[in-house]
Specification:
Elements (H helix, E strand, L loop, with lengths): L5 H10 L5 E6 L1 H5 L11 H10 L1 E2 L30 E5 L2 E5 L4 E10 L3 E6 L6 H4 L14 E4 L2 E4 L9 H19 L1
Family: Belongs to the fasciclin-like AGP family.
Membrane topology: Lipid-anchor; GPI-anchor
GO cellular component, one term: plasma membrane
Length: 184
């Protein structure tokens, strides 16, 4: 946490908020069960997001998990577009956590007070935003069809060339719309 400066963020959050913090701390075995090289393959930003995904910006006691609203918001972000979904379900005293890629349970309480709760989990919580395999690239566009008529070749297809002015205008328009949506 020190390497990513998330420790400073958590310290400030605890001292400047009345909401408290809940942390899901994976066991050593949870990290050992990851595919070798998994953590080293992550970018610095992904490492920060992975740590933040294990932090809920409110104090949740074991009993308050029963009334928690899913999906839970994490310090990595909310569940918009299902990038960082975190859902909890309870059964008796058991708290189960799912991310869409990881299913695990709280296996014990490491520490708890009125502001901070740290619970051990048996797996590293893997958010889809980081660990979901990227979809395959789209299939290439079909070659332009050429219709022959009256001795002259006529091309009625839309250019498949990504550098065509029409394609660039569409990409720019979509990009502007996305930026505008985030600014609202």
């Amino acid at each position: 946490m020190q390497q990513t400066s998330v420790d400073t963020q958590l310290y400030n959050q605890l001292n400047n908020s009345n909401n408290g913090i809940t942390i899901f701390a994976p066991s050593d075995n949870a990290f050992s069960s990851l595919k070798p090289g998994t953590l080293n393959s992550l970018t610095d930003q992904q490492k920060v997001e992975l740590i933040q995904f294990h932090v809920i910006p409110q104090h949740l006691s074991m009993s308050t998990f029963q009334t928690a609203s899913n999906p839970l918001r994490t310090n990595a972000g909310d569940s918009a577009d299902w990038l960082f979904p975190l859902n909890v379900t309870t059964s008796g005293n058991s708290v189960n956590i799912t991310t869409g890629l990881t299913n695990t349970s709280v296996s014990g309480t490491v520490y708890t007070d009125d502001q901070l709760a740290i619970y051990q989990v048996d797996q590293v919580l893997q958010p889809p935003a980081i660990f979901n395999p990227s979809p395959p690239p789209p299939a290439p566009a079909p070659a332009p069809s050429k219709k022959k008529g009256h001795g002259a070749a006529t091309d009625t297809s839309v250019p498949a060339d990504a550098s065509s002015p029409m394609h660039i205008n569409i990409v720019v328009s979509v990009g502007v719309a996305i930026v505008a949506a985030f600014c609202l």
